[in-house]
Specification:
The complex is a heterodimer.
Chain A: H1 16-54, E1 65-71, E2 74-79, E3 85-91, E4 94-99, H2 100-158
Antiparallel strand pairs in A: 1-2, 3-4
Helix pairs in contact in A: 1-2
Chain B: H1 2-49, E1 56-60, E2 63-67, H2 69-125
Antiparallel strand pairs in B: 1-2
Helix pairs in contact in B: 1-2
The chains are: A alpha+beta, B mainly alpha.
């Protein structure tokens, strides 16, 4: 929910249902950011793996027997024919034939790009987590003081 | 009199809900376009890095079809342009919907206040 102008209201001025809502919203935000972070790590792992498997395509391994997957459950025997060029998926359905070294470079760049994205995300995630903590603290404080007030009323009305 | 007011509150509420739904749809459409734009920008960058004799293939269905490098670059550039325009359209629609949301919320608040007053008056009379 965004408005054109936002006013700063100190968290302590909010009442309990509002604080509840706010803490739930922040919880969702933190979860979303954590999921994004995991996705980035996962993607980075995949690119890293690609780079490493390229390392296996050496001239020493030329003509060696390999198993080529035709489907996820069927392989076909073959021989390593070309260690010079590889076909790289660069996105949106485009594949590019690259020299081995360029492909290694490509994956290295992707890994670094994702590292940077994760670095940028980290402080945002931390800030949200801290905000959530402080909102929960204020919420607990208010709940405690409200309980205490009720008890006080209950005891004073008895006596 | 109070019933007429209540009906109006209901109507406003429903209008508000449908505007919010449209707003959400626009927001998620905008996010999807954004990610498409980023992906296409990365692809264009890679294509630009290639030497002019590199082979480029496009996955059409289950077939890899050889493409001309220049043509691919132009295709991706055109797609980027199109997506940027779509994003602008969505942004304007979002701004519009947001304004509508705000005006409807204000009307709602006013109607509800009136409604409350009606109830108070009715209770006072009884």
């Amino acid at each position: 929910m965004s408005t054109g102008t936002m006013k700063e209201i100190p968290v302590t001025e909010l009442n309990i249902p509002q604080l509840n809502q706010l803490s739930q919203q922040l919880e969702q935000d933190v979860e979303l950011l954590q999921n994004s972070m995991s996705s980035l790590k996962l993607a980075q792992g995949k690119f890293s793996e690609c780079k490493e498997s390229l390392g296996k395509l050496t001239t020493d391994n030329l003509q060696k027997d390999i198993l080529v997957p035709l489907t996820s459950s069927m392989y076909v025997a073959g021989q390593l024919a070309d260690v010079d060029k590889v076909l790289v998926d660069i996105g949106t359905g485009y594949y590019v034939e690259m020299k081995l070294k360029s492909a290694v470079d490509y994956y290295q760049r992707k890994v670094e790009f994702l590292s940077k994205q994760m670095e940028n995300l980290q402080p945002v995630l931390q800030e949200k987590a801290l905000m959530k903590e402080s909102v929960m603290e204020v919420l607990q404080m208010k709940v405690r003081s409200q309980l205490a007030a009720h008890q006080h009323l209950a005891t004073s009305s008895k006596s | 009199m109070a019933e007429g007011l209540q009906k109006r509150v209901q109507q406003e509420l429903e209008k508000l809900k449908s505007i919010q739904k449209d707003f959400q749809k626009s927001v998620s459409g905008r996010q999807q376009l954004d990610s498409q734009l980023k992906e296409n920008t990365l692809v264009l960058e890679e294509l630009k890095r290639l030497e002019s004799d590199s082979a480029v293939y496009k996955l059409i269905g289950q077939v890899l079809v050889k493409q001309d490098l220049e043509e691919s670059k132009q295709n991706v550039e055109k797609r980027i342009d199109y997506i940027s325009k779509e994003i602008k359209r969505h942004e304007e629609a979002l701004k519009d919907l947001e304004k509508k949301q705000d005006t409807h919320r204000e009307t709602m608040a006013k109607l509800q206040a009136q409604f409350q007053q009606q109830i108070v008056k009715a209770a006072a009379k009884a």
